[in-house]
Design brief:
Layout: H1 12-21, E1 27-28, H2 29-36, H3 40-52, E2 56-63, E3 66-73, H4 75-96
Antiparallel strand pairs: 1-3, 2-3
Length: 97
């Protein structure tokens, strides 16, 4: 792996999720699932790994009698994502020569 790339963020669905979360205060689980085009179980697996690293936090609440989950990008996650993007940009810059 290239220096500065975060192997936790690098898989495509996690990278896309981090980018989406960087643009909002929070995102409902079902919205993230639809935008990424993945199943509940796939998104849950990615979120568990990101949450274990404190890159995201999950907020749960009951709305109209239904349990709902929102995903929040933490400050640690935001910083890690910025570092990962900077490493990707450096890699592209080096490839352009």
């Amino acid at each position: 792996m290239v220096e500065g790339l975060d192997p936790l963020i690098h898989p495509p669905h996690r990278l896309q999720l981090m980018a989406l979360l960087g643009e909002v205060t929070d995102m409902e689980f079902s919205v993230a699932r639809e935008l990424l085009g993945v199943s509940d179980s796939v998104l849950s697996k990615h979120l568990a790994q990101l949450a274990a690293a404190d890159y995201v936090a999950l907020r749960k609440a009951t709305v109209e009698g239904r349990q709902r989950t929102w995903i929040v990008l933490t400050s640690k996650g935001r910083s890690a994502f910025r570092g990962h993007v900077a490493a990707l940009q450096a890699l592209v810059g080096a490839a352009r020569g």
